[in-house]
TrEMBL record:
It comes from Thioalkalivibrio versutus. Transmembrane segments: none annotated. GO terms for cellular component: periplasmic space. The keyword Zinc-finger does not apply. This is Osmotically-inducible protein Y.
Length: 104
């Protein structure tokens, strides 16, 4: 009878340990904080590109994962591509920039 008395606390402890292990961040997924940080970087890069007069009217998509920014879309000149990459690199928090933009 004494052994049965310890069974529910042991079971609950094991269950809690399994639940906590399931909530742990893995290398394949971002934590909420990382996701928010990447969203802020994306917003800053988009704003910086939008505020650049020489790049007005061109469509560039910006995606960020773990501080790595990916630029994609179509632009009219190589100078526009170079300028967009330069601007993105200048944004705080950007670790690297991947250029997938193409000329029209």
């Amino acid at each position: 009878m004494r052994q049965l008395r310890y069974l529910p606390p042991i079971f609950l402890t094991l269950l809690l340990a399994l639940l906590l292990a399931g909530c742990a961040a893995s290398n394949e997924r971002q934590t909420v904080g990382e996701y928010v940080d990447d969203s802020v970087i994306t917003t800053k890069v988009k704003a910086a590109l939008f505020n650049e007069p020489s790049l007005s009217g061109f469509e560039v998509s910006v995606e960020t994962y773990e501080g790595r920014v990916q630029l994609s879309g179509f632009v009219s000149s190589q100078e526009d591509i170079n300028k967009a990459v330069e601007i993105a690199r200048g944004v705080e928090g950007v670790r690297s920039v991947e250029n997938d933009m193409q000329l029209k």
